[in-house]
């Protein structure tokens, strides 16, 4: 079966490589360099499983810049284009999805079109009605950054927002290409699937916010946060997972998905979802003030990434902390080996780690690393368990 995948970010590429294990997959992107890398079997992403998969000789995978080449004769077209949150409208920017859908309908109107990009609740139904098509399906992703392909090969569940034959076939495609056996499959309406995605990420954000606020309380009262977290987690209903404090939840998904879910509550009484969104800002305020208590002249920012073993800076929590420190006229320097730049957002980037350590009065690390052991005494982090 020929399958086209539009977009080669974490979602698109992980889906493409999953399905290319058993089907002919063509990935479409608008960036020529990404297409070149993929056709040379090199990964544009920091994901070890993706790098390994691209080296498999039997992988039926090709990348292209041509929509006609990608869409023609494809049984399924998977859309994985960005849907950034627009603060002016309070909604996701879904223009790229609509443009792709219209292009597919113009070239191959018989293809089933699967939206993997995160969208507002009710979007798939509204777009289907607007374009007069019954070919649209929404199927959410549940991926961890840096482990995107792994989480597709060993999925926690497969959710497809379509109960017709095309929805069942797509769910079967994902299940058959996965390495995990007996994956739970849930077929729902499109709006239910859209809501499952937003509520899942908001629950994760809520858990992050909870343990961050616990940590703020512990630090403010000179309590051992590790003991508090372990004691709370001994309740099996809570558990010892996803509980490592941070500077706030960040990355591409959680910040925008929580805000979009809140926007969907505009006519519904709600306090919890708004509190989750606001808690993330409150945590960054707390972290910035805790750093300023050390009265540093130069604050060194160790890594800009959202988590360890990642190359993604999008909406990382530490950037929110940087903006708050800047407002207090603190000098800031950055160490980020993933950047080949002299500065980032106006801040000097120091390429040499030893020099970075030397010039920094305090080193701020959202996630700790063993390469900071020799300057541990001037490292500020709330990474208590050394987890991602």
Structural notes for this entry:
The structure is a single chain. With 388 residues, this protein is α/β, with parallel strands linked by helices. It folds into 2 domains: 2-188, 3-Layer(aba) Sandwich (Rossmann fold); 198-380, NAD(P)-binding Rossmann-like Domain (Rossmann fold), CATH 3.40.50. Helix content is 41%, strand content 14%. The chain contains 14 helices and 16 strands. It has helices at 10-19, 32-39, 48-54, 67-71, 95-107, 123-131, 148-153, 165-177, 190-220, 225-233, 254-264, 272-292, 317-326, 353-359, and strands spanning 2-6, 24-28, 61-64, 76-79, 85-86, 91-92, 112-115, 136-138, 158-160, 185-187, 298-302, 331-335, 343-344, 347-348, 362-364, 379-380. Strands 3-2-1-4-7-8 form a 6-stranded parallel beta sheet, with helices on both faces. Strands 12-11-15-16 form a 4-stranded parallel beta sheet, with helices on both faces. Strand 13 and strand 14 form a beta hairpin. The longest helix has 31 residues, at 190-220. It is globular and about 65 Å long. The model has no long low-confidence stretch (mean pLDDT 92). It is an enzyme of class 1 (oxidoreductase). Keywords: NAD, Oxidoreductase.
């Amino acid at each position: 079966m020929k399958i086209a995948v539009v977009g080669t970010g974490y979602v698109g590429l992980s889906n493409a490589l999953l399905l290319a294990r058993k089907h002919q997959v063509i990935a479409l992107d608008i960036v020529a360099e990404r297409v070149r890398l993929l056709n040379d079997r090199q990964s544009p992403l920091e994901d070890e499983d993706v790098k390994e998969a691209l080296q498999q000789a039997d992988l039926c995978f090709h990348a292209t810049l041509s929509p006609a080449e990608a869409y023609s004769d494809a049984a399924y077209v998977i859309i994985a284009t960005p849907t950034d949150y627009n603060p002016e409208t309070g909604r996701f920017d879904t223009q790229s999805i609509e443009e792709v859908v219209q292009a597919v309908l113009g070239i191959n109107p018989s293809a089933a079109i699967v939206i993997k990009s995160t969208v507002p609740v009710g979007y798939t139904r509204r777009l289907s009605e607007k374009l007069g098509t019954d070919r649209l399906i929404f199927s959410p992703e549940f991926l961890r950054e840096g482990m995107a392909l792994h989480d597709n090969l060993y999925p926690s569940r497969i959710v497809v927002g379509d109960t017709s034959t095309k929805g069942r076939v797509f769910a079967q495609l994902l299940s058959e290409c996965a390495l995990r056996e007996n994956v739970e499959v849930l077929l729902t309406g499109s709006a239910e699937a859209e809501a499952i995605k937003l509520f899942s990420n908001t629950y994760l954000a809520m858990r992050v916010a909870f343990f961050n606020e616990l940590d703020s309380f512990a630090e403010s009262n000179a309590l051992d946060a590790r003991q508090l977290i372990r004691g709370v987690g001994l309740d099996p209903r809570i558990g010892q997972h996803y509980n490592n404090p941070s500077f706030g939840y960040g990355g591409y998904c959680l910040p925008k998905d929580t805000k979009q879910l809140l926007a969907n509550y505009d006519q519904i009484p709600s306090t919890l979802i708004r509190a989750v969104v606001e808690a993330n800002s409150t945590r960054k305020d707390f972290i910035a003030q805790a750093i300023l208590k050390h009265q540093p002249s130069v604050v060194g920012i160790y890594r800009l990434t959202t988590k360890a073993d990642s190359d993604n800076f999008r909406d990382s929590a530490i950037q929110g902390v940087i903006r708050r420190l800047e407002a207090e006229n603190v000098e800031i320097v950055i160490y980020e080996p993933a950047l080949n730049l002299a500065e980032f957002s106006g801040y000097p980037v120091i390429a040499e780690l030893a020099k970075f350590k030397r010039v920094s009065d305090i080193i701020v690390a959202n996630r700790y690393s063993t390469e900071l052991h020799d300057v541990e005494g001037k490292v500020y982090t709330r990474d208590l368990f050394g987890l991602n």
